[in-house]
């Protein structure tokens, strides 16, 4: 098949490009499905309960169909400063982009009643650092809209933010 592309600018100039494309006689063999994965079609709604974690992916949030991988592990660096109230849930890999938000829900365990209003999801980076991913505790789960696959757990957001000015005392701020 021949494809012709014409680009016009505001001065009336036109550039033309023609190219030929050819369909392969035999489509490549689809990739084998990895063990412990679930096929997710890019154009279909998907929901999966992994037991402790759930994911809901609306249709067209993926750029292509994938084999969604899931694993569960203990949270690294569980300390007095950051206490996780769930296992670490690795939902696929962060290098696979999402078109928009998907819903993730994680069931907390051993969370004190007085912290329920402060429970949220945290994304755990490869270096063990935690970053706030949002969410709200409701009906026994912490649910959040997230834009990335990766490792998540439930934490309590109890440390207030601090603001450090980047200017010196008596600086002219005009």
Describe this structure in words.
With 174 residues, this protein is mainly β. A hairpin with a 5-residue loop joins strand 1 (2-8) and strand 2. The protein has no helices and 13 strands. The radius of gyration is 23 Å and the shape is flat. The termini are far apart. The model has no long low-confidence stretch (mean pLDDT 91). The protein has strands at 2-8, 14-20, 37-40, 46-49, 53-57, 66-73, 88-91, 97-106, 119-124, 130-134, 136-138, 141-148, 150-156. The strands form 3 sheets. Strands 3-6-7-13-9-10 form a 6-stranded antiparallel β-sheet, with no helix packed on it. The protein has a 5-stranded antiparallel β-sheet with strand order 4-5-8-12-11, with no helix packed on it. Strands 1-2 form a two-stranded antiparallel ribbon.
Number of strands: 13
Main β-sheet, in a few words?
6 strands, antiparallel
Strand content: 35-45%
Order of helices and strands: EEEEEEEEEEEEE
The number of helical segments is: 0
**Low-confidence runs:** none
Please give the alpha-carbon distance between the first and last residues.
63 Å
User: In angstroms, what is the radius of gyration?
Assistant: 23 Å
Mean pLDDT, nearest integer? 91
Percent of residues in helices: under 10%
Shape descriptor: flat
Q: Give the strand order of the largest sheet, numbering strands 1, 2, ... along the chain.
A: 3-6-7-13-9-10
Helices and strands: which structural class? mainly beta
């Amino acid at each position: 098949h021949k494809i012709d592309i014409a680009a016009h600018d505001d001065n009336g100039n036109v550039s033309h490009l023609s190219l030929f494309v050819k369909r392969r006689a035999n489509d490549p063999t689809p990739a084998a499905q990895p063990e412990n994965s679930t096929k997710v079609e890019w154009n279909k709604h998907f929901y999966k309960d992994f037991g402790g974690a759930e994911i809901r992916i609306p249709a067209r949030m993926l750029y292509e169909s994938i084999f969604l991988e899931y694993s569960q592990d203990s949270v690294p660096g569980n300390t007095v400063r950051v206490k996780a109230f769930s296992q670490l849930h690795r939902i696929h890999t962060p290098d696979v982009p999402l078109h928009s938000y998907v819903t993730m829900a994680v069931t907390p365990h051993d969370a004190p009643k007085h912290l329920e209003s402060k429970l949220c999801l945290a994304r755990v980076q490869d270096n063990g650092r935690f970053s706030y991913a949002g969410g709200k505790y409701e009906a026994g789960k912490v649910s959040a809209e997230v834009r990335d696959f990766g490792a998540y757990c439930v934490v309590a957001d109890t440390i207030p933010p601090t603001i450090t000015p980047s200017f010196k005392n008596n600086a002219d701020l005009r």
